Amino acid sequence: MNGANETKIADIKINTSNLYREESFTDLTFVTIRRLAPIKIDGSPDESRESIFMGITQLMSPNGPIPVQCLIEGAKNLGEAAEKLPAAIEKTVQEMIAEAKEMQRQEASRIVVPGR
Fold it and tell me: By three-state DSSP, how is residue 21 classified?
């Protein structure tokens, strides 16, 4: 791991102009909503930026639980985030399925059949 592009731990810098305070809200059954509230370096709210809402859940599959995390687009508050969460999860799951199908398609096209 001595490549020219290797990042040393000492080279890691925090972007102090892009800090967020994280809060979690859960219904204790299926979902968690995370609110990332923008803050300044002193910890005070940064009113010039919008909060970001993320949804987190797990779907059960024959192979066990699959974690799903999604951005809840356009949510201005926790109520809107809760309302928009099902559609955000559905969109993310459909994207995951499409990606998995594409990966399967790519793998299938790599199979070389002798004699063909």
Answer: strand
